[in-house]
Write a structure and sequence with these properties.
alpha+beta, Uridine Diphospho-n-acetylenolpyruvylglucosamine Reductase, domain 2, Uridine Diphospho-n-acetylenolpyruvylglucosamine Reductase, domain 3, Uridine Diphospho-n-acetylenolpyruvylglucosamine Reductase, domain 1, 3 domains, five-stranded antiparallel β-sheet, 18 strands, about 25% strand, binds flavin-adenine dinucleotide
Length: about 350
């Protein structure tokens, strides 16, 4: 089975069923059922549980489609109402504003499917598959190539967009093709060359402007080239070693988004921040991690604005000391204007 373009059955959004619900914080929310599909759109859906930072406000509207058909129906719903669309993978590289996100947020994590093809050595996965789970599954089979990815807590779609990488490897090195859905509902298969990859970036990354958001393409599926036929025990040992190394060098015990800033080559962002004396520096519940200065951790009760203001503080201090502009790797979604007083 592959995720492929649906033949018909795309929902008509004229006669919508709706149902009122009370959320945990007593905000009244509404669930809109799109007919002829199993897709439902929820209003005022809290996003903090869907981001690794565990912060952020609510999505005006939220959908988590389970198949391509429901994804297309959600997009159609947004298009007909001229709504801004924001895509959420595992939320492991996101800072969502305390004020939430306007428009429709579409979460891809329920788009699930994976196929290891022993003939070609290719792994084809739906956007919502978890990268660490795929790394463990590949290791169990004795397929080499994904050992480096075990500590990256995102989805396949997020990894393709971010060009996720670690231990001198990255998705661009092994991507054969990515299937993407355009805002007009058409599917395209793109090669790595067409995705314009470089360090932690791709042409799939969109800016915050309304026109860029409207053009945003959604990764639905990816095919990766791996190398089958190795001894599973050996691949597993390397995978475990990578995981162990990360647990000892990065603060996995507190919510974070991984590295906050891109490394401004030839420097490492962590080294610059540490040399600026910012390790342990805290604003509200947000702290520059003691174990790794390029991580900002939520020590408990942090607001998105605490993290945002700490990011700005670090940028300012590093600029003053080194005349280097640290560029955030984390994607900031929603409104932060005036957040730092
Ligand atoms: C503890 C920790 C360690 C980390 N270590 C690493 C590391 O070693 N290397 C590394 O590269 N990253 C690392 N990260 C960051 C993060 O895991 C990666 O950037 C990851 O690839 C993000 O995937 P995601 O599914 O969580 O995407 P999200 O964070 O949900 O989204 C990231 C961006 O991609 C877009 N997006 C997501 N899915 C899709 C889709 N299907 N179609 C179109 N757009 C989409 C979103 O709109 C957003 O702009 C780490 C994070 C944490 C919390």
């Amino acid at each position: 089975m592959t995720i492929s373009q649906a033949a018909g059955n795309v929902c008509t959004v004229s006669a919508l069923n709706t149902k009122k619900q009370q959320t945990t914080n007593s905000v009244e929310s509404e669930v809109i059922y799109l007919p002829s599909t199993d897709c439902a759109i929820k209003s005022q859906a809290s996003l903090s549980a869907f981001t690794s930072y565990r912060v952020g406000g609510a999505a005006d509207l939220y959908a988590a489609p389970r198949n391509l058909e429901a994804l297309q129906a959600s997009l159609k719903y947004a298009k007909e109402r001229n709504l801004k669309v924001t895509i959420l993978g595992a939320g492991s590289n996101l800072l969502v504003s305390d004020r939430g996100i306007s428009g429709l947020v579409i979460a891809t994590r329920h788009l699930r499917f994976s196929n290891f093809d022993p003939e070609t050595g290719q792994l084809t996965v739906a956007a919502g598959e978890s990268i660490p789970s795929l790394a463990w599954a590949a290791a169990e089979l004795g397929w080499q190539g994904l050992e480096w990815a075990v500590g990256i807590p995102g989805t396949a779609g997020g990894a393709v967009v971010m060009n996720a990488g670690a231990h001198n490897s990255c998705i661009a090195d092994m991507l054969v093709s990515a299937q993407v859905l355009s805002p007009d509902g058409t599917l395209e298969t793109l090669t790595p060359e067409q995705l314009g990859y470089s360090y932690r970036t791709s042409l799939l990354q969109s800016g915050e402007s309304p026109s860029e958001r409207r053009c945003q393409r959604i990764v639905t599926q990816a095919t990766l080239q791996l190398a089958p036929g190795a001894d599973p025990a050996k691949v597993m040992a390397i995978t475990k070693e990578h995981k162990k190394h990360r647990l000892s060098t990065q603060p996995y015990n507190f919510p974070s988004c991984g590295s906050v800033f891109r490394n401004p080559k030839p420097y490492s962002a962590g080294w610059l921040i540490e040399q600026t004396g910012l390790k342990g520096y805290q604003i509200g519940g947000a702290q520059v991690a003691l174990l790794h200065a390029n991580f900002i951790v939520n020590r408990g009760g942090a607001k998105a604005s605490d993290i945002f203001c700490l990011i700005r503080h670090i940028q300012h201090q590093v600029q003053e000391r080194w005349s280097i502009n640290l560029e955030p790797e984390v994607k900031m979604l929603g409104e932060f204007q005036g957040a730092c007083g």
